[in-house]
Amino acid sequence: MEFNYYMPTKIYYGRGVIDQYKNDMENLGGKALIVTGKISSKKNGSLMQMQSALDSLNIKYITFDEVEENPSLETIEKAANVGKEEKVQFVIGIGGGSPLDAAKAIAVFIKNPHVNKENIFFSKKLESLPVVAVPTTSGTGSEVTPYSIVTVHKEKTKKNLGQLVYPVIAYMDPGFTDNLPYHITVNTAIDAFTHLVESYLNRDCNLMTEIYAMKGFELFKSSFENLVGKELTCKFRENIMLASMYGGIAISQSGTSLPHGMGYALTYHKNIPHGLANGLLTIEYLRCFKNQEKIINMLNVLGMENIDQLDRVFQSLIQVDIEISSQEIKEYASDFANNKEKLRKHPEEVTLKNIEGIYKNSLY
Ligand code: NAP
Ligand code: ZN
Hints:
CATH class of the largest domain: Mainly Alpha
Oligomer: single chain
Bound molecules: NADP nicotinamide-adenine-dinucleotide phosphate, zinc ion
Shape: globular
Radius of gyration: 20 Å
CATH superfamily of the largest domain: Dehydroquinate synthase-like - alpha domain
Strand order of the largest sheet: 1-8-5-4-2-3
Distance between the termini: 42 Å
Helix content: 40-55%
Largest sheet: 6 strands, parallel
Number of helices: 15
CATH topology of the largest domain: Dehydroquinate synthase-like, alpha domain
Order of helices and strands: EHEHHEHEHEEEEHHHHHHHHHH
Number of domains: 2
CATH architecture of the largest domain: Up-down Bundle
Strand content: 5-15%
């Protein structure tokens, strides 16, 4: 057996961790750029807690609160320019996956002044300023992954920045998600679940990723019940943030595969939130997967007998009307068929027809 494992993020998990472990930020520098979305971090207490931690450490900061969902390279460049002018020494991302991913990209842009939205995808491996991550959704696991998924309008798609930026610290406080609205809770939880699935069924699944995936599935056994029954208790918030972290650690090693690669087109062209887009495609993806032994193992841990049972859970959580023509499906499928990296992650042979089939059977 052989495997590699590298996950350098220092994780603090629990209610009140920012205040408790703020001293860890002391040696990151004297001035920070805080990167957030437009509203939620001001309401859920995360921004205020971070600002008072920085105040008490005498660390100066400037806040950029314009990150949109599925952050664009334009926004990233704008924030990086603020960071460069202000001579910040580290970047703090607070929010869902969008501000966290944006913070990572911004940290790369600030550290490398020659980099811009035109040349970033042609750059060699670059260093970044240190990044601190404070997740306020339980889904992407971005606080423990090196990925930064950005919207590239020029190419009409979303893609990975191509740089590896692990946050140096992740402050994971489930309290910031206590009031996350039901529909965002569902969409992001499904994202976490698909990370676990796509890592577990990945060509690059290994001993370590499997341990995390199994732990995540265990937590989803009760979490699915909470989601279906709309019982979003504090315990559920704690569990689902852990499940999301397990999913993040798992994909930090293995990457994702078909549903994620295929879902980007639904997000870009049809405005379907990221987690929901993956969720729409996951059941068909599982039905096409030939290695049933792995599927059965996963279902056992979830306490389910077959894919139909999982399908019923998904159907009760995902209700979305999506208008899509067969021509559009053909285009999305042929674009995805060129994504050799994602296709390689799928351990079984997959044809253009299979990809079209997953889209069609999922969306019609
Ligand atoms: P998001 O796009 O970050 O946020 C979605 C919405 O949730 C926003 O309106 C946001 O409001 C709101 N929100 C966030 N936290 C909240 C809270 N505690 N209470 C109330 N509302 C809250 O959603 P996401 O699903 O977490 O992130 C999706 C992005 O992550 C996508 O771009 C996806 O590609 C990426 N992703 C990255 C990785 C990775 O490994 N890096 C993995 C999977 C997905 P505000 O805008 O006001 O904050
Ligand atoms: Zn995802």
